[in-house]
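Anyone have C-alpha cells for DUF2225 domain-containing protein? Sequence:
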Amino acid sequence: MDNISPFYEKEEKCHLCQQTFSSIKVRNRFVKVMGQDTDLKPKYEDPEINPLLYNVKVCPHCGYSFTDDFSKFFAPGTKNVLKEKISSNWVHQDYGRQRTIHKAINSYKLALYSGLLKKEKHLTLAGLALRTAWLYRDVSETGEEKRFLALAAKQYEEAYINEDLTLTSMSDVKVLYLLAELHVRIDQWDKAVTYFSKVLEKQREPREKQLIEMARDRWYELRDNMKKNEANV
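Reply: yep, here.
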C-alpha cells in the first residue's frame, strides 16, 4: 500500500482528432476531504492530492480539451471551428503529468474555450468556470476568482432557464443554491436574495435537506449584512 502512488495514468481518446494520449488521475482512496466552502468547494487534506487538478483532459496532439461531462456529439460545422480556432494554433504541450494549480487553471481555460466553441451545455460550462474560480481562490487571486464566479453564475442562470436538469446529476435545488451563493460572492445581493428565496420555497423536497439548511443559514447571514449596510448609509 505504501508503495502505491496516489496518481495513475489513464489512456484517453481525443473526441476531436481521435488520437490517444495519457492523462493523470487520482486514486479515490488517497482523496481526503476535510470540509467545504459555502459554494461547495471541497477542502482537501493534502492540496497536492486534489482530483480537481486533473479533471480536464488536454489532447497534446490537437489542443482540444474536455471533461467526462462533454458530449461526444459535435454539431455540424463545430469540428471545423475547433480545428481552425484551436488545433491550427496549437503548440504541443503535455498535460499528462502531475499538475501545479496554475497548470490546472490553464487546462480549465482550454476546456472552457473548447466548450464555448463546441456549444456545450451551459451546465457543463458553469461547472468549468466554477472550478476555475475555486483554483484561483487557492492561490489568493481574488480578482480572477470573482471573474470566473461571475461567468459561472451567468452559465448556471442559462442552464436553469433553458436546460432540462432532470437528466443531469445536478438538481434544480443545487443549481438555485449555487446561483444564490455565487451572487453573494460577486456582491449582487439582490439577485442572491431572489435565488435563496427560490431554494427555501422547495424546503419540502426530502433529497436536498442539507442544501436547504445551508441556504437558510446563508440567507440569515445575508439579511444581517444587508441590515448593517443600510444602517451605515
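The two ends are 60 Å apart (CA to CA).
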